Amino acid sequence: MAFPVQFLCKGLRSVGLVLLYYAFSIGITFYNKWLMKGFHYPLFMTLAHLTVIFCLSALTRRAMHCWTGKPRVILNWTDYLLKVAPTALATALDIGLSNWSLLFITISLYTMTKSTAVLFILFFSLVFKLEESNPFLIVVVLLISSGLFMFTYESTQFNLEGFVMVLLASFIGGIRWTLTQILMQKSELGLQNPIDAMFHLQPLMFFGLFPLFLFNEGVSISTSEKLFRVTELSPLLYSLCTLSIGGMLAFGLGFSEFLLVSRTSSLTLSIAGIFKEVCTLLLAASVMGDKMNALNWLGFTVCLCGISLHVALKTYYSKNKVPSLRQLSSRSPELELPLLQQSRYDAEDSAADGYGDEEEITLH
């Protein structure tokens, strides 16, 4: 009798973690789209999010230090600037361009185009020899690229500028996640925990994106009555409050991914990510009024088939592999906070943090 109860509790816990991940992942997409209807400064919004994430990461590190009694890792300047900076710059450009594109395109087109990041991740994984080539990858590429073509073909709400931005963000995202995987697999750096990784990445991301912000939004935002030329306090407080909420959603998304993978598996997150894309498009069509014809839905289905095939291949080829260095190192006692105790990790060749795993990356 104890076995069914334990199985039921584990299932309910997994469902709860998936729903938590959905809330943050889908919520931040719709929230940013809603916010930019009246706040046309996506790069400044991204900088505000980075600041909030850094502060929350620092507080979380402090709490983990108090709980475990062990000091958190702090990199020296040489490693920080030479090894972390490339990842931070690619991450900043990916997030900045993604948020910027929401000024021009619908959530459905954004979701569909960002899903093609798996193509660029596959490409750079092969370049850096993080993944072995196999003939099935050609099928994956054909399915995803043809799905994107069908989705954008004769679309009534297509915007070329926004599409190019988000496609460029997907390309940079391939570099970003490949570098992130390499960074977090370097055991000597000690950045296997995503909280430590976020803490170290945010400052460099901020300064990497700041020149682009100054060039595109510096003059206009300095004369904006919503921030720097306010005549009343309430608009300023409202802007700061809405930007802070977005930053908390971004932090919650990263941490919910970590919880889901550490308590279940990266395969669970991958499958949940596929259904998340479906939920996002359905909500975009019903809530935001995005218009999609039969060909668009067919293209989206073909793209999801390609992503699902990629996830299946990753699962199949990783079954007989030895657990990676990151898996072994991620089982350290310092990760066993009360919320994370009794975690069970898959024997797949996958990450236990929700930031460096390729299966997770391709779906968010």
Automatic annotation (TrEMBL):
Keywords: Membrane, Transmembrane, Transmembrane helix. The chain crosses the membrane at residues 12-32, 38-59, 80-97, 103-128, 135-153, 159-179, 199-216, 236-255, 267-288, 294-313. InterPro entries: Sugar_P_trans_dom, TPT_transporter. It is found in: Membrane. It is a multi-pass membrane protein. Residues 17-309 form the Sugar phosphate transporter domain. One of its GO terms (cellular component) is membrane. Pfam families: TPT. This is Solute carrier family 35 member C2. It comes from Solea senegalensis. The lineage of its organism: Eukaryota, Metazoa, Chordata, Craniata, Vertebrata.
